[in-house]
């Protein structure tokens, strides 16, 4: 029986593990893939207070070690459902069941697909969602990045260090990402901007060889020969499996207040999976702390 079972080993989940262990609680973190969450693919993080510059990978690695050294247990299994049984929570994974007094949902959000035909088929064959993971495979080649947020701007900056040409394809003329990143990117000679443009088709037999782009204002289409397409069009949550315990909003995010409590006593939500206005590394860490402390308070109340 664990005091806290945390679902998701991103920044929110691992911060919750640190706080849970420091409060002397038995903590299990369940992670479907690898620890780190979304930050692992950030080239550089410059907005975490007190750390002027760190790679996303190093940040995640340090946080993982911190949680592990404090005694948090990590297991790599996908949590498939939670059964609420007389106050006790049973977390069911593909392999087994874990019994918990409280559960913290820190499931984050996943890369949103572009929604273009053949996207899934060509993923790993020219289509990628992670420039830091796959960028080195495109050394000296031509690539495109689609999206207008910070991720797209950072990906394009990173890829301009490897690739011959980087096309930034964005569906509007204004970028959502930070002006500072955009200004730096505009200075790079290898980078071209295709604004008011949408990718409408992917071409290539075994691998991606070109994308078809449509100008949104004129409807004109053109073909762009590229070896890689990096999709950076935001994230989407994946919480349907927990909808019985935690109410979801229209977009699938978990409805929980700033105290991270869901509609089910003993079930908390932390980080990007929670419905909220700002999703940043700092807010994920903050949620992890709040959720763990709320879980500890719940345990204390119940034992009183
Ligand atoms: P985002 O800010 O939500 O931006 C997604 C972009 O994709 C938007 O420009 C959007 O266009 C575009 N888009 C969405 N669906 C599309 C579609 N179907 N076709 C074409 N374009 C589409 O996502 P993000 O860049 O991944 O960033 C997520 C969060 O992480 C943000 O809060 C961001 O600030 C943060 N972040 C921070 C850092 C950092 O601080 N270093 C780095 C990376 C990310 P529209 O603009 O037209 O909606």
Structure description:
- The protein has helices at 11-22, 56-69, 119-122, 131-134, 150-159, 179-186, 281-303; strands spanning 2-7, 27-30, 73-75, 79-85, 88-93, 97-105, 110-111, 127-128, 142-146, 165-170, 191-195, 197-203, 210-215, 221-225, 228-231, 235-236, 267-269.
- It has 304 residues and is α/β, with parallel strands linked by helices.
- The strands form four sheets. Strands 1, 2, 3, 4, 5, 6 and 17 form a seven-stranded mixed beta sheet that branches. A five-stranded parallel beta sheet has the order 8-15-9-10-11. A three-stranded antiparallel beta sheet has the order 12-13-14, with no helix packed on it.
- α2 links the parallel β2 and β3 (73-75).
- NADP nicotinamide-adenine-dinucleotide phosphate binds at residues 42, 45, 47, 114-115, 146-152, 154, 171-172, 176, 198, 232-235, 279.
Index terms:
alpha/beta; 5-stranded parallel beta sheet; 17 strands; elongated; binds NADP nicotinamide-adenine-dinucleotide phosphate
């Amino acid at each position: 029986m664990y005091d806290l079972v945390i679902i998701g080993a991103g920044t929110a989940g691992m911060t919750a593990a640190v706080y849970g262990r420091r409060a002397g609680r038995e903590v299990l973190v369940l992670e479907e893939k690898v620890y780190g969450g979304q930050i692992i693919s950030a080239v550089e993080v410059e907005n975490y207070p007190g750390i002027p510059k760190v790679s996303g990978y190093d940040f995640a690695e340090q946080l993982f070690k911190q949680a592990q050294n404090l005694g948090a247990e990590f297991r790599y299994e996908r949590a498939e459902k939670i059964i609420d049984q007389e106050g006790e929570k049973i977390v069911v994974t593909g392999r087994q069941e874990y019994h918990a007094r409280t559960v913290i949902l820190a499931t984050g959000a996943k890369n949103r697909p572009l929604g273009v035909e053949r996207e899934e088929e060509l993923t790993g064959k020219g289509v990628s969602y992670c420039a830091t993971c796959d960028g080195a495979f495109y050394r000296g080649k031509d690539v495109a990045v689609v999206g207008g947020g910070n991720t797209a701007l950072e990906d394009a900056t990173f890829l301009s260090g490897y690739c011959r040409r980087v096309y930034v394809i964005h569906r509007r003329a204004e970028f959502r990402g930070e002006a500072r990143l955009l200004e730096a990117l505009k200075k790079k000679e290898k980078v071209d901007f295709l604004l008011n443009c949408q990718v409408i088709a992917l071409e290539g037999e075994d691998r991606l060889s070109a994308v078809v782009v449509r100008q949104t204002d004129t409807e004109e289409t053109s073909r762009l020969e590229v070896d890689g397409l990096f999709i950076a069009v935001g994230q989407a949550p994946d919480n349907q499996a927990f909808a019985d315990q935690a109410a979801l909003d229209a977009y699938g995010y978990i409805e929980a207040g700033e105290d991270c409590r869901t509609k089910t006593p003993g079930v908390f939500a932390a980080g990007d999976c929670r419905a909220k206005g700002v999703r940043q590394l700092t807010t994920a860490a903050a949620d992890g702390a709040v959720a763990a402390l709320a879980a500890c308070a719940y345990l204390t109340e119940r034992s009183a």
